[in-house]
Write a structure and sequence with these properties.
Shape: elongated
Bound molecules: ligand BES, manganese (II) ion, zinc ion
CATH superfamily of the largest domain: Zn peptidases
CATH class of the largest domain: Alpha Beta
Number of helices: 14
Number of domains: 2
Radius of gyration: 24 Å
CATH topology of the largest domain: Aminopeptidase
CATH architecture of the largest domain: 3-Layer(aba) Sandwich
Helix content: 25-40%
Distance between the termini: 25 Å
Structural class: alpha/beta
């Protein structure tokens, strides 16, 4: 979608549609009041007749509103003014875009970005509006033989109250668009079926990104990983006919601006779980909903999406994406329960359940991350069903060996409306991973399943500040809206924006 920013009054807009908000019960927003005044109280009349009470989610499309230069006016219900917060704002934008898409309007001017929200600045409102708009018009129809109708809404103008805010708003718009583009990449990769989105496909995607954005890209194949001693990762790949890959994509932006030197100038490494299909392996999963295990590479997708966002924004920092990627399949050559493998770190692992494969590929990727002397390492993984039980589909599970990092990520999630919630990583839980035959087992039992998985990873993250985001409940939706969400690209993008000093 094409975006622009403007300040001005609604009655002067020569556009296909002007969008203004109405609070519940029947209270006009400032922009709606302006429309009402020039139109001889047309809106007040409509509202008095009971056609729009301002309930959240409601809309009313008006034609030929007197004295307006636009073709249509769209009223969007905002709910009660005192309850109008972050979430309600995002919902109002989405409702507006969805409705606009169903009208004949190919462009619109949105006055909703002028609505006051507690503690939220103009740049925040603009950034969120761009993200929410793109998210709403997204369709995944690559595999439909009849494509959906061509997108109706093509141009969106977002308004601000003061001209003096134009420069910061433009900057926020650029950020919002870049985040939306990272989210879109993550959603697309996530939605692609497992027979298309293989480890090789992810590697090719990374190589294309490298060409497009001038990044350094390295793809390690099985023999190179054998030489490095990544036997934990490779044990997961043993049952698959698809060759495993370790993708390393490096964005170098730190030299582009004179920011502070020191620890915060060291690269950030993002590690993404890239299981392109998780059958469970020999510890085979039950059949119901197994198709959703094509989404088991959503960590990888989010990491690549975030890298794209950062490259588009040209942030002044160094960022490395590491993606261990393979299928997890049963076969005569597959890893068996009871097998013992030696990880790249030298620590030995007894594989008691081949379905706990995410940690087996991530641990070697974490060890590999050491060579970048990172300031911070964040892994992103659809790691445990237990995390879905703990937090549902609302919050991403947040684990960290560094308090400051944990707080920064939780805060970034709040800012981005892509929240994560802290979970414990106390040593007390480490006993769950005891093995009679190796340094550790790869499972810790049903109780605290997401914590024992994080504890497992923590043993490979001793040399840096590290956080682990368990996105098992947030990376995709099931049911009628089945599809990848692109989370936690917004969270990661906000964290990196802040780190680069580009977030107000
Ligand atoms: N990819 C799954 C986790 C998962 C399951 C995410 C369902 C979202 C929905 C992961 O590889 C897995 O299978 N984990 C096991 C671990 C267990 C064997 C210790 C799980 O959560 O059941
Ligand atoms: Mn699994
Ligand atoms: Zn998995």
């Amino acid at each position: 979608m094409e975006f622009s920013i403007k300040s001005g009054s609604p009655e002067k807009q020569r556009t296909a549609c002007v969008v203004v908000g109405v609070f519940e019960p029947r209270k006009l927003s400032l922009a709606a009041e302006l429309v009402d005044n020039v139109s001889g109280h047309y809106l007040s009349d409509v509202i008095r007749r009971g056609d729009m009470d301002g309930k959240a989610g409601s809309t009313l499309l008006l034609h030929n509103v007197p004295s307006m230069l636009c073709d249509r006016v769209l009223l969007v219900g905002l709910g009660k003014e005192k309850d109008f917060r972050d979430k309600e704002y995002g919902a109002a934008i989405r409702t507006a875009i969805k409705t606009l898409n169903d009208t004949g309007a190919s462009e619109a001017t949105l006055f909703l970005t002028e609505l006051a929200i507690k503690k939220r600045s103009v740049p925040w409102r603009i950034r969120q509006a761009a993200m929410a708009a793109e998210e709403t018009v997204y369709r995944f129809d690559e595999f439909k033989s009849k494509k959906g109708e061509a997108r109706r809404l093509r141009k969106l103008t977002l308004t601000i109250e003061r001209r003096s805010e134009l420069a910061v708003a433009e900057e926020a718009l650029r950020q919002g668009k870049a985040i939306a583009s990272g989210v879109e990449l993550a959603r697309r990769l996530g939605n692609l079926p497992g027979n298309v989105c293989t480890p090789s496909y992810l590697a090719e995607t990374a190589q294309q990104m490298a060409v497009e954005h001038g990044l350094e890209c390295q793809i390690l194949d099985r023999t190179e990983m054998e030489t490095l001693g990544m036997n934990s990762f490779l044990s997961v790949a043993k049952g698959s006919a698809q060759p495993p890959k370790l993708i390393v994509l490096h964005y170098k932006g730190a030299g582009t601006e004179n920011t502070d030197k020191g620890a915060r100038n060291k690269p950030v490494v993002l590690v993404g779980k890239g299981i392109t299909f998780d059958s469970g392996g020999i510890s085979l999963k039950p059949g119901a909903d197994m198709d959703e295990m094509k989404f088991d590479m959503c960590g990888a997708a989010a990491v690549l999406g975030t890298l794209q966002t950062v490259a588009e924004m040209k942030l002044p920092l160094d960022l490395v994406a590491i993606v261990p990627t393979t299928e997890n399949m049963p076969s005569g050559t597959a890893c068996k329960p009871g097998d013992i493998v030696t990880s790249m770190s030298g620590q030995t692992i007894e594989v008691l359940n081949t379905d706990a494969e995410g940690r087996l590929i991530l641990c070697d990727a974490l060890t590999y991350a050491e060579r970048f002397t990172p300031g911070t390492v964040i892994d992103v993984a659809t790691l445990t069903g237990a995390c879905v039980i703990a937090l549902g589909h609302v919050a991403t599970g947040l684990f960290a060996n560094d308090e400051g990092l944990s707080r920064e990520l939780a805060h970034a999630g709040d800012e981005a409306l892509d929240r994560a919630w802290p979970m414990p990583l106390w040593d007390d839980y480490q006993d769950l991973l005891k093995s009679n035959f190796a340094d550790m087992a790869n499972i810790g039992g049903r109780a605290a399943g997401s914590v024992s998985a994080a504890c497992f990873l923590s043993r490979f993250a001793k040399k840096f500040a590290w956080a682990h985001l368990d996105i098992a409940g947030t990376a995709w939706k099931s049911g009628a809206d089945k599809g990848a969400t692109g989370r936690p690209v917004p969270l990661l993008a906000h964290y990196l924006l802040k780190r680069a000093g580009k977030l107000g």
